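1st attempt posting a full record on here, be nice pls
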Amino acid sequence: MKQRPLGKTGFQIAPIIFGGNVFGWTVDEKRSFALLDAWVDAGFNAIDTADMYSAWVDGNKGGESESIIGHWLQAHPSKRDKVLIFTKVGGDFRDEKRKGLKAGYIRLAVEASLQRLSIEAIDLYQSHFPDETVDDEETLSVYQDLIKEGKIRAIGASNYTAPQLDRALKIAAEKNLPAYQTLQPEYNLYDRFSYEGAVADLCLDHTIGVIPYYSLASGFLSGKYRSEADLGQSQRGAGIKKYLNPRGMRILAALDEVSKGQNAKPAEIALAWLLTRPAITAPIASATSIEQMASLKKATEINLTPDEVILLNEASAVLPTD
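the predicted structure (as tokens):
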């Protein structure tokens, strides 16, 4: 599988990253192992998770996703050299003590992540959310120490606005600290406009690798959800309702049209569209079955025509009537 450079990290990654938010949530450990095995066998090489996944599930405490990945690596030690492990720090575990980007907290969090993941170094350690209560210099300084100690290899940001990312990059340059080399924004064919424009331009200017999450808009872009009656098909149904509007239906109609011409599924086309966008290195997408895994691989093989890209762009544009 053809790989792409991930910003200035020095990493080469396949065009889609496995989203580990499903591990310990909609997928149990046994099935997670099967999916991870299939992921590597298909030629993919990057897995994204976060320390707090999946604290939102009743009965969970956070750390479940990292622990499952760690158990998989313990069961298959030879696969560590075949995958890059990305995780995040700072997200809310649903308690007041475990969140944010203070240096002391990051120190504790990285050790906990390393233990759960059963690895000696995290390939990409990402600030899950900006923390306006902490100076960027404090956060970047502890990241510098962790890089020197060999506990993390590169750093990235997630959910940062253009001003927040620009500020952090300037502090890194002024203080000779490590800079964020990746950005993880919410970005897909429906949710376009918080990324396109200033954020995208900044990433292009600084050669930042962009690895968007919610690449399929919580599954809406799969085409499985076209009315409120369909929402019961998934635990994510409540989050999909907001897409059931005229603009969402235009997008699905365009995906259907392009899918027919490409002999592909709507989800595959939605991912292929992302791979045409400026600065996008690899979207993050999850799978809960081997069939979905095969669909992710097919998405990397689709070459959209210029007319198909225009059709999708126009269908997803916001009209005055929306």
